[in-house]
Design a protein that fits this description.
Layout (H helix, E strand, L loop, with lengths): L5 H12 L6 H26 L24 H27 L8 H26 L4 H25 L18 H25 L15 H29 L4 H24 L5 H27 L4
Helix pairs in contact: 2-3, 2-5, 2-9, 3-4, 4-5, 5-6, 5-9, 6-7, 6-9, 7-8, 8-9
Length: 314
């Protein structure tokens, strides 16, 4: 056997072992991706809320002389470098997802492209993170970093739905027929949730938790934008309540009912956290909880809108 023929034989041997259907491993990797993207939001929040934003003062190295954090950098270096390490873990999950989907790249192009987008986001996030450090935590760059994470939560949610056959062209089970108003209302809720998150970034950029004692703020009126931020939050709550009304009136069961209940629960929880932090001096722990709630809200709103999109209309 010639040595030239060995690499193709090796590659074909590997691909022959990969799944030809969406199996449990693919589904688990999709869920792991969603969990990982959500955890990344939490660890990113921990970096800022513990004033560890410049725990690693340079990029791509942690210091000019070290790729990793050093004992002299203390807890701030550990927190910041730990957040950077999580990015590599997410990259590994995305690579594994693409590998497991290789034999399905044409048949399940939707899954393959979503996994590819999640992988492509890793270097993009790394670059934005680097710019964040190099600009000494410019609040607009920090906000962009957070918004990209929110977009990745949305993509990961869609990946889970597609992998489990809940939505998409390859959905495995029929969905309950919904009233005609469900689709536009849930789509609006998802879009308004995104607006609420964007305004939340503006509020955060004007607030006290900058990520470092010397980091700049955006100079906007924090109290004013807090009230502006509340407007889309009220609209999301109204949309979730309307979704509940449709579910109860139509006695709708199945995934859409679960999605609406989850959306309403997350929305109410976010409202409670938001009001509590506003009237109690914006404690760091509640700000972190609000950031986690934002990720859960985007996932829940995306899930409800996605299910409404692929459900038949009564």
């Amino acid at each position: 056997m010639s040595t030239a023929s060995r690499p193709p034989r090796i590659v074909s041997g590997i691909t022959a072992r990969l799944p030809v259907t969406v199996d449990k491993t693919v589904k688990r990797l999709a869920v792991l991706s969603l969990i990982g993207q959500t955890v990344l939001v939490v660890t990113g929040g921990a970096v800022r809320l513990t004033a560890s934003g410049l725990g690693c003062p340079t990029w791509p190295r942690c210091t000019d002389a070290s790729l990793v954090n050093t004992p002299e950098m203390g807890i701030h270096g550990i927190i910041e470098f730990g957040n950077r390490l999580l990015t590599f873990a997410l990259a590994a999950v995305a690579v594994m997802m693409l590998v497991y989907l290789w034999n399905l790249r044409k048949e399940r192009r939707d899954l393959f492209l979503l996994a590819l987008a999640l992988l492509a986001s890793i270097p993009a996030q790394a670059v934005i993170g680097g710019i964040t450090v190099l600009t000494q935590l410019n609040p607009w760059v920090v906000g962009l970093h957070f918004l990209v994470s929110m977009a990745l939560v949305v993509l990961a949610t869609l990946l889970v739905n597609r992998a489990y056959g809940r939505t998409g062209k390859a959905r495995a089970a029929g969905l309950t027929a919904l009233p005609g108003a469900a689709r536009p209302v849930m789509t609006a809720v998802a879009l308004i949730s995104a607006v609420a998150v964007c305004l939340g970034v503006v509020v955060t950029g004007a607030g006290p938790h900058a990520g470092d004692a010397d980091a700049p703020r955006n100079g906007l009126d924090w109290d004013l934008f807090s009230h502006i931020h509340a407007v889309p939050a009220y609209l999301v709550t109204a949309g979730a309540l309307f979704g509940l009304f449709l579910v109860l009136r139509g006695r709708i069961t199945g995934p859409f009912r679960t999605a609406v209940l989850l959306l309403l629960g997350v929305t109410v929880l976010q409202a409670i956290i938001g009001f509590t932090q506003y009237y109690n001096g914006i404690p760091a722990l509640l700000v972190g909880a609000h950031m986690l709630g934002a990720a859960l809200l985007m996932s829940a709103a995306t899930n409800a809108a996605d299910l409404a999109r692929y459900s038949p209309v009564k």
